[in-house]
Design goal:
The protein is an alpha+beta fold. It is 42% helix and 17% strand.
């Protein structure tokens, strides 16, 4: 089976950041991952497509994404016709700042953002415009020290902005979600262990000793999702991983992940991911190479 390319960057233990500013006429780099956290800014990319984990999104004029360590990603040409694409890529190792540094009160928001980066984060236009000038500025600065200070400022400004959304699902990225509530955690563990079976609301409510109605309200309050949406998201994340990593048929993936019929699976997958399971698999396979 083919694997995602693991990119080795020239970042050494003596460096803080790896910065690349380039102009190009197309997106050609294949699906890849790396140990570094990456902040990637793209300009003049209308119609291009960004794939991060099991997230696929079509881009507008600008794109700014923060990608966590080990998370596969690619920007592909799709419908983009621009011949003057600008891409500014900033990479740094997760241990650059250290837990002691990030745990300081002034950096709490940066710490939270970097934790969220394990799923991938896409910033929306208000956030992009807030740091656009600084991103351009760091590509022209000569002093390494002041460049580091400016990059820290960019990360901080992004961390206190609410104009962003999560990209990949936790089940696709193999990330264990830690719930605030022990009762929610018990339910999440049950769902993660039984996603392929018929999961009933009464069973989940019994796990935490609540009535179904009270449990539904409690779960939505704690997680921001209805229980049905949460179960669907877990199943879709695992289904996406099956499509990428196995040769199982779409029907096999459908039933293995707890969906009761293929047409319903296709409909939900396309509504949530923007593409059909078949196209999702093709998008990944054409970017994967044997290594």
């Amino acid at each position: 089976m083919s694997k995602v390319i693991t990119e080795i960057t020239p970042l050494s233990n003596e460096d803080c950041f790896y910065l690349v500013d380039r102009y190009k006429d197309s997106f050609t780099y294949p699906l890849h991952k790396h140990n570094e956290i990456e902040l990637n800014f793209v300009q003049k990319c209308i119609g291009a497509r960004r794939i991060v984990g099991d997230s696929i999104e079509t881009l507008g004029e600008y794109d700014l994404a923060l990608i966590g360590s080990g998370l596969e990603h690619v920007w592909e040409q799709a419908e983009c016709t621009s011949s003057n694409i600008r891409e500014v890529t900033l990479q740094f190792l997760p241990e650059l700042f250290g837990e002691n540094f990030l745990n300081k009160r002034q950096l709490k928001s940066v710490h939270t953002m970097l934790d969220m980066a394990q799923y991938g984060i896409a910033f929306e236009m208000p956030a992009i415009m807030k740091v656009y000038g600084m991103l351009d500025e760091i590509t022209h600065m000569q002093s390494g020290f002041y460049r580091v200070i400016k990059i820290l400022t960019i990360l901080y400004e992004l961390s206190i902005d609410s104009n962003f959304h999560q990209l990949s699902s936790s089940s696709f990225s193999h990330i264990k979600v830690s719930a605030d509530s022990r009762r929610v955690q018990k339910v999440e563990e049950y769902i993660n262990d039984n996603y392929g079976a018929d999961i009933r609301l009464q069973t989940l409510a019994d796990i935490v000793g609540m009535t179904p109605t009270a449990f539904s309200r409690f779960f939505k309050l704690r997680t921001g999702k209805t229980i049905s949406d949460y179960i669907i998201d877990i199943r879709l994340g695992i289904a996406s991983r099956r499509l990428v990593d196995t040769t199982m048929s779409i029907a096999e993936v459908c039933y293995d992940c707890g969906f009761n019929n293929v047409s319903n699976f296709n409909r939900i997958f396309k509504r949530k991911k923007g593409v059909s399971p078949k196209l999702f698999r093709e998008n990944y396979r054409k970017h994967k190479v044997i290594i």
